[in-house]
Amino acid sequence: MTDGPTEPATGGAPPEPAPEPATDGPTEPPTDQTRDFGRILVTGGAGFIGSCYVRDVLGRRDGTQITVLDKLTYAGNEANLAPVRDDAEQAARLRFVKGDIADREVVDDLVRDVDAVLNFAAESHVDRSILDPEEFLVTGVIGVHVLLEACRTAPQRPRYLQVSTDEVYGSVAEGHSREGDLLAPRSPYAAAKASGELLVRSYVVTHGVDAVVTRGSNTYGPYHHPEKLIPLFVTNAIDDKPLPLYGDGLQRRDWLYVSDHAAGIDHVLRHGRSGETYNVAGGVEMANRDTVELLLEHLGKPWSLVRHVEDRPGHDRRYAMDGSKLAALGWRAETTFEEGLARTIDWFVDNEPWWRAARTGDWDAYYERQYGQRLRTTS
Ligand code: NAD
Ligand code: DAU
Fold this sequence. Notes:
By secondary structure, the protein is of the alpha/beta class. It has 14 helices and 12 strands. Helix 1 links the parallel strand 1 (about 40-45) and strand 2 (about 65-70). The chain is globular. The termini are far apart. The site of 2'deoxy-thymidine-5'-diphospho-alpha-D-glucose (DAU) has 19 residues, from helix 8 and strand 8.
């Protein structure tokens, strides 16, 4: 398997040579220098990872100004930015715009005012992409295209960072995915994410847009929407409700604490080389059963809450990434799983109003559609 600047291959052929940016692109400083970005557009900044990025960057109090563009879908929540709003100095450096990354007019205006665009916006839940894939494509393909066009045409040529995922590699039976490996997405969510990455690559090569891509591992932490495994099981367990574990529960995920993920993204923004992709690996590989066992132990709840239910169609058995390319750039994850999981569970215990509010709107209908039959037909 190859690493380095050859990525991504999209078929069985050997990896292509590194994308050659068009000559009208910006001159790249060496990656051992830190680039500063005083004005940043964060799309999807009211979601789980995007809001962590906003809180952490504004929390440094270094004068950075952030505009958040977020559509506030069921997963977006302005309350995720409350710690910023409650701090006058930080609040003065945040602007919030409710809007869609696929809306060219809104995007063009905002992109003209910044030095960097970080795109966290996406429909992010694999199960929902199996039920209703269309929005995944609109945001993941058209939305990314609109952002890239805005970067291409903005006179100051901002840097663009696409937040992508280890799911673009598909299920990895053994070893660890490296940046030059085949893209083999297996769910509509992962396919939309892979498509977004390919568009980014095309804008680097054809138009010289200054752009980087990150591929993050399974992320967990405070403010995680309760539809995902860890927060779903923690919040259901608090209420003594059944925990629907798909299939045999032996699927493996590589876990990354949310502030580590945000820090890895920021490191790539400041040090990454244009046209390159960087794995942001957690380095904590766990079988789902073991993760559930740990969280139940921390909560003092019994294993009898767990129900083995019908598996997710096309369920990826294992994700695992090699993080050495980003480590060579000077970054690796710091939070141990035990520490991060304890912090996460304690946050959910202490923030019941937040997650109960997230379980409103379409929650009951979604839950019934996703789990109703599964839970009724389990032993
Ligand atoms: P999330 O679902 O919590 O947040 C997504 C945010 O994007 C929400 O605030 C939503 O309102 C907003 N949004 C959705 N469509 C939009 C649109 N068209 N225009 C503007 N805003 C829109 O997701 P997350 O878990 O925070 O993931 C953030 C990014 O990181 C996504 O791109 C995801 O693919 C990627 N990622 C997530 C993980 C993970 O484990 N959660 C791991 C690797 C990569
Ligand atoms: O790997 C990165 C990806 O991680 C991100 O790109 C996605 O946005 C994010 O949602 C996440 O995808 P997963 O599908 O891995 O996460 P999820 O929390 O949905 O599931 C984690 C594992 O737990 C997976 O093997 C499926 C299983 N699971 C999940 C749910 C919601 C269950 O067994 N039962 C459940 O109810």
